[in-house]
Amino acid sequence: MTPFRLNRLFDPRSGRALDVAVDHGFFGEPSFLTGIENMDAVVAALVAAGPDAIQLTAGQARLLQRVPGKDKPALVLRTDVANVYGRPLDPHLFSHHLPHAIEEAVRLDAVAVCVNLMQLPDRPEVREAGILSIMALRREATRYGIPLMIEPLVMRGGDAGGYLVDGDTAKITTLVRQARELGADLIKADPTDDIEDYHRVIEVAGDTPVLVRGGGRVDDRTLLERTVAVLDQGARGIVYGRNIIQHPSPTAITRALLAILHEGASVDSALAIVEGAAA
Questions:
Q1: Whole-prediction pTM value?
Q2: CB 100: neighbour CB atoms within 10 A?
């Protein structure tokens, strides 16, 4: 991997990045579409808010890349599709990557591609599928100089028959380490249940930049406090989706997060940005 594309992902002032994930429609789960039904409007609003990157699928990336000018957010391209988020789950689980994903990333001028590495209870075949995808993508990503973002996802069973995020520190660090060993250029990892443990995730990732995944919706203060905590422990950025796109003011929460990332704003001053927009 060459670092040139990542120069468009990480802000030169802070060395950090905010990637807004809007790839949820890829996974075929109806609840994931809340707030992103009209993708033209969503992408336009995000471009105006100015995050460092927007994470999209091959089918939606043109909505970002057709925007003229040099100052728009960079593209992170989602490469794989899975059906592990259903409630109830399908009897057959799968995870597949687009066979032409890296070439598509080159054509679309993406700064990186993203692929899952999922660990599900008693379903080792899904983890195997992720490893096979990563190995195939790693080969082509190296050939074309495309940074590979691996997303280690440790899941647990949920009451409704689906899977939920497992924030166990030992499980997360183990899967993050496997992502590093498989050749990740970037790692997108869940927060730990005990957020003060997050330095352990950073440690096992070594010099591979870690961007922290947002997960399900939480209140603004919790989100901002968690963001400050992981950054203080060495995270290089965040990849938030529903906490931005399902927010009452996606632009305001984006600007609040950017203030924390790039200007060192406190939780209270960032929260004032959000509250000021609602006034």
A1: 0.94
A2: 12
